[in-house]
Amino acid sequence: MEQQSLFRNRPFIFLFIGGFLAIIGFSMFFMTTTWFVISDLGSASSLGLILIAITVPRILMMAFGGVLADKFKKTTIMFSTSSIQGVLLVIIFLLNNTNQLTFGYLIILGFFFGTLDAFSGPAGTSLIPKIVQKNQIKQANAVIQGLGQIGFVIGPIIAGSVMEFAGVTTGYLVSAIIVLLSAFFMFPPFLKEGPVDNTIKQTPLKDLIEGFSYVKASKFLMTGILILITLNFFAFGAISIAIPILVETYGGTPINLSYIEAALGVGMLVSTVIIGVVKIRRRGLTSIAGLIATLIVAIAFSQIPNLYILTALAFLIGFTMTFVAIPFFTSAQEDTDPRIMGRVMSIVFLAMNGFDPLAYASVTLLVSRGFDIQLIIFSFSIVGLMIALAILWRGQTFRNYKSTY
């Protein structure tokens, strides 16, 4: 592969456009469904069940998604999942258009939609090292992560605007079109993936066990996964669910909520751009420092009752937490055996995404039991900070890791 700019690498361009559109479509579907359940079905209590049906299968099937990504062409998996998700959204649109979209249909279709997403994530991340050179992996991750953050902001804006002027039915139609368009950009001949690296014939269970054994044998991967779990449970997950509660507690309005959410996303976007430009050799130390900084800001976030200062702190949380994930993520892609890349990435993905729902449930349960939200976030942040400091002290292999790229 000749050295060339990422933005002249056609397979990479098609990958990040397809991924960007998929995120927009997913976030549109998520917001449209949320509004439909609350406004049209008139059952806010049912919303949790539908969101669980969408998110939990995605988490549970993530490891098997990695097995599939190592067994088959990643481009075929991504194209197939996006195409089927687009078809599911078309079905939801047709059902809603004929006033036949019920809670039961949404549970079933949401379950399959979320399950499919578990296969596309590991396939996409493990494809990056196959279509860019090793010294471009960090920049490629920064571009894709940055676009991902933009997508999660743009998707709800588009969904809200479409529903405001054309209704929920049109919202489902637009999300279906966007997801199908993402499948077009993921068409395998456009991405030009090489041959499958995993040629060992064994059962899926043995493949799964081999993936976990590989991760367990690596102190670097185990420490990095612990760092991601700490970040997503004690900091990001807890704060995400706490933000609307804090806004209401401090007498804010929906506009204050939007400011804080936007500041969080902008902070992540700014740091993503910096990571894409600046060479970071001490990636292990960078991840630990980013985790400690995030948790320190989270402690301040739990104590300051001013919504404008909280908006600035949300920016800092988004800014610092990106320095935790991308350096580790990139090093894992650079150093992992390509034959087992999909399984390793699926486990990393599980650490990144699997603990958010647990944080949501924990914070919600504690609030319902009468605990003060500020005390909850403070306690979570303190525990997370203790874990981070222990990693800094004990995680010598991770702390001293240096990248050659």
UniProtKB/TrEMBL annotation:
The keyword Transmembrane helix applies. The keyword Transmembrane helix applies. It is found in: Cell membrane. Keywords: Cell membrane, Membrane, Transmembrane, Transmembrane helix, Transport. InterPro entries: MFS, MFS_dom, MFS_trans_sf. Its main location: membrane. PANTHER family: MACROLIDE-EFFLUX PROTEIN, PERMEASE, MAJOR FACILITATOR SUPERFAMILY-RELATED. This is MFS transporter. It comes from Alkalihalobacillus alcalophilus ATCC 27647 = CGMCC 1.3604.
